[in-house]
Amino acid sequence: MSMTGEVAGTQLLGRAAAALRAVSGMMPRGLTTAEVAERAALSRPTAYRILAALAANGFLDRDARTARWVLGPELYLMGAVAAERYDVTELARESVRELAARTGESAFFSARRGNETVCLLREEGSFPIRSFVLYEGVRFPLGVASAGLAILAFLDDQAIDEYLANADLVARFGEQHAAAPLAARLRQTRRAGYAVNPGLIVEGSWGMGAAVFDAGGAPEWALSLTGIQPRFGADRRPELGRLLMEQAHALSQRIQRAQPAR
Predict the structure, then answer these.
(1) What is the longest distance spanned by two Cα atoms in the chain?
(2) Lowest-confidence pick of 13-22, 65-74, 125-134, 160-169
(3) Is there a contact between 89 and 221 (Cβ–Cβ < 8 Å)?
(4) Full-model pTM
(5) Alpha-carbon span 110 to 225, nearest angstrom
(6) Which class would CATH give 3-77?
(7) Residue-by-residue DSSP string for 74-126
(8) Any idea which of 77-86, 110-119, 133-142, 158-167 has the lowest mean pLDDT?
(9) CATH architecture of the domain with residue range 87-258
(10) To 10 degrees, the CA torsion angle through 117, 241, 174, 202?
(11) Could you tell me where in the chain the CATH 3.30.450.40 domains are found?
(12) Is the pLDDT higher at 131 or at 223?
């Protein structure tokens, strides 16, 4: 294959991956072709060709009634195989349930995937008013939402500097996600041991998160809580942070015992 062909093939693979990530982040609702094009930064004709090819190979389906693209059966089969090595959600379920039961808030487990986090588990607490910013499958860039903030804060300094220099979060998430204010929140997260999102995604919807570490000491997951602002007052945040770090430490130990360093 010529160098030109290799570059074109790599670009096509990257575009297909972007389309799949866009659809997976909006499950079970799915996305229209135009929505995939916007989220994956593709032209609409290119998006359609990629989506159709993915569907022909079983990676996507298209709902005949809504014309929305959804994940297909081939991904389910691949995911079931990959889960044998990578899936730690069963190890996390105990901590997520414990957090929801002890706080009354919605509790979550998220995993780092490159420069994003993806929510894998959700458990509702007993408090009747809830925030619906997070749900299984939703993705956010690192530094956005409390899980991504907690993970980013505990990467090494070089990785953080490189991320802040290249991330473009302002257009989608607002000026509070520019490099300077984000860096300030990362410093505060390191000092406290847990992250706080004071309604920066949806006004009035607060979140807190704590990083979960693999056997090599890398922050690869996070536990988090979300709820309405009055439930996250200054008098209650230290206790919520303590519970998050307690469960994050326990989960880190369970994961490290199950997946020893290689």
Answers:
(1) 63
(2) 125-134
(3) no
(4) 0.71
(5) 11
(6) mainly alpha
(7) HHHHHHHHHHHHH--HHHHHHHHHHHHHHHSSEEEEEEEETTEEEEEEEE--S
(8) 77-86
(9) 2-Layer Sandwich (3.30)
(10) 90
(11) 87-258
(12) 223
